[in-house]
Amino acid sequence: MNEQDIPIEISATKLLEWLESRKIVSKNWQAQVREIRSKISNALNDMPVHPELVKLLSGSYINYFHCLQIVEILKTTEADTKSLFGRYGSQRMNDWQSIVRAYEKDSVYLAEAGQILQRQNVEVPGLRKQRNKIGQMIDDTEDRIKDLIRSEEHLLKERQIICQQLGIKGSNLKEEFIGRIKKLPKFYDEIVKALPKLRKAIDYYLEFSSNSEFLPLVRHILEYGNTTVYQFIYNEPPLSVEVPPITVELTDNEVVADGDQGGIDFGDLEPQIDFGEGEVQIDFGDDIVVQDDDGIDWGDVSDVAVVGDISLEESGIVVAGSGLDGGVARGNEAFTVLDNPLHRDQFLDEIFELQAFLMMRLYELKSDQSNSFVFSLIEVNSKYDVNSVDDMHTCVQNILNLTSNEALDHLHRLKHSPKYAKILAGKLQQQLVTVDKTRSIREILKEKIVTLSSEKENIRPVIARLIANTKHLQQQIENDISKRYKGRNVILYGGVDTDPLD
Which domain of life is it from (predicted)? Predict the structure, then answer.
């Protein structure tokens, strides 16, 4: 094979070493380049107006090949200064011709071109890396926005569930709290209406109980209804009832919520509310201590008096008698037995007691053993089978559902615990504040994404221009070296990645 047909392959990263090893450039070429750069800076201060020059000098590092183009342009602009001997009287032309000669001495231009090529081979990957980093920042910011949206939806859903349980819109908490508290008697009426279904279960329990005073509160409500605590304690109706007023103490910030964010219309809610699996358990404050030391005024009272903000019907109080056989129900004794916190807990305890008994009986009746180890010595009426006892247990469970549902629990706490009302209102208000902050952060992050996207796109043309300049410079170097070796094909490999950007 002819030597001229064998290409000269040179690594772009080792071009300078190759040039120095073959004595094409001297080892002190960098000092010569500094002098040339100084001349170029001075020459650029006096340039004619020409569109090709503007395009050539904008955004590019001036090298030897640019200087050759500048000289060709000056031959046109400075043509009137050319003498008969081919010399130019223009200082501009003389300056740039001097620069070209300095470049060509010891092939300094080739060393500088190799250095530029190596530098661009580093700059392009660096810009690509910077662009990818910005892209990752955009992705991270978008993920952050998604997290904020999920957090916002969770807060609004949690607030919606609480408001739904309370049956309020959440726009004016104090007014809505009081309005819902006044509907507590409807909840109690539902319980009282359902309670007679427990008579069979109570009679069944009586067959196994040696204590005739068992379930006193449940049996009292069955016989007299949801009476005052006074009547339950003293076994006689009060002559008059002084109901404590409903008070909900909230600050201005806690009273009114943002209508656009907090206005949730849940329609008309029945006293019994089933919210499925999305329960929000909120437990604030300590148990309320009930004082039973209110005095009884036995003065001459002829009429039944009602004192307070609400009527007896609104408070769910049943006055079973009148005349001189009762006193005045005040304070906690004026509340109904289902409304008073202490007696409400007692009622639940008695229902749980009845439920536990029925569950034990169901277990025994379903067992293969004829007698339980607990009740083996007691003769039991066998008229109740498994199905009958199971029906009793279902009735008890319904009472528990009515008494301990989330809506009733919230309203009961609101009425009897000012601390709970403040904490609940603060929680509902804070959720809106947090949502506002979350939305503000989201807007900031969206603006950040716009800025980052702009930065990312601005890098694209820079990389494209560098790649184009690098490829052009690489071609010029290959052609120059090829001339030195009688036209042999020269290939610079391992240069900048020219793959298009995504």
Answer: Eukaryota
